[in-house]
Amino acid sequence: MRPRPPFPPRPARRRSPAGLAALLALLLVGGEWAQELIDQFAFGGTLDSYGIVPRDPGSLPHVLTAPFLHVGFGHLIANTVPLAVLAFMSALRGVGRFLAATLVIVVVGGLLVWLFGRGNSVHLGASELVFGYLAYLLGVGWWERTPVAIAAAVVALFLYGGALWGVLPTNPVVSWEAHLFGFLAGLLAAALLHRRRPPRAAQISPSSPRSRF
């Protein structure tokens, strides 16, 4: 009897871009909820002290934590749906770019809040990410100008364009600074990650005429 040849290994299934984007959005939103549950039931809301207090040296590291904190469940619920939708749409641009854009929004947006935000106040909440992802999608549409990128920008603007009024100082208990600087950081992320580079100039051959100056 001849031994049977081993079965060929099954090719590994690759998760679709939409599946990866949904997973990233779920992890982000799930992390926000897990943090708030722990904060409320284990720490009595004291983790909110890790928000950004502008120009307080001890608060500077809180740039990295502030977008993941909320003042109670009402605040978190208000941010959950737009965060999930815009994070999913942003993650469709690729995992690496999504993570890089998130880092730019958190760090640059948070630093601007720390530098220019209202003093004697604590700035926290995922709305910095919400405005950052909205601006990121709009910026990608502007920089890439492909049908897919433009369509994503139009959808994002249609769904949440009305939120852009949040960058104005209309409510004293809302951190419009986080909205504004998160938005600017999202535009910066789009420019850094999606701006088309100009083509390299053709090298001058030795036989080319030369000008004096």
TrEMBL record:
Q: Which GO terms describe its cellular component?
A: membrane
Give the record's GO biological process terms.
Answer: proteolysis
The UniProt record lists the Peptidase S54 rhomboid domain at 61-195
What subcellular compartments does it reside in? Membrane
Q: Which UniProt keywords apply?
A: Hydrolase, Membrane, Protease, Transmembrane, Transmembrane helix
GO molecular function terms noted in the UniProt entry: serine-type endopeptidase activity
Transmembrane portions of the chain? 68-91, 98-116, 122-141, 148-168, 174-193
Tell me the membrane topology, using the record's own terms: Multi-pass membrane protein
Gene3D superfamilies attached to this UniProt entry: Rhomboid-like
Keyword GTP-binding among UniProt keywords: no
Indicate the family of this protein: Belongs to the peptidase S54 family.
| Keyword Transmembrane belongs to the record | yes
Do you know which SUPFAM superfamilies this protein is assigned to? Rhomboid-like (SSF144091)
Record-given protein name: Rhomboid-like protein
